[in-house]
Amino acid sequence: MTQLIEYEDSSDEVRAVYDDIRATRKTDEINNFWKALANHPPTLQRTWQTVREVMTIPGEIDPLMRELIYIAVSVTNGCEYCIASHTSAAYAKGMSDNMFGELMAIVATANTTNRLANGYQIPVDEQFKT
Fold first, then answer.
1. What is the pTM (predicted TM-score) of this model?
2. GO: which molecular function terms (predicted)?
């Protein structure tokens, strides 16, 4: 198992990222994901920078929808950690149990039809090409 680097045991470089995570998320908590990545500070910095930009900078997609997309991809990729953390974040942003159920139905349906389309090697219809 990967060592989890606690704040008090971290380098100045890692502490700077942890401090930014805390400030951005308005929390004192550092999730285990970040503590694990702290074993390689360049990966921690790069990953946090990307996640912060994609998940927190305002854009056309609202914060709850971003979490729902993240959950859908995480379910498809089978990432237990990401499913748990982003489901928690989605509930905090207003997701209901019914919304989660609908999301899981969409994910399951998309995975089924994707596999069928790939298995049958179905050519894309002209009207769907952009």
1. 0.92
2. peroxiredoxin activity
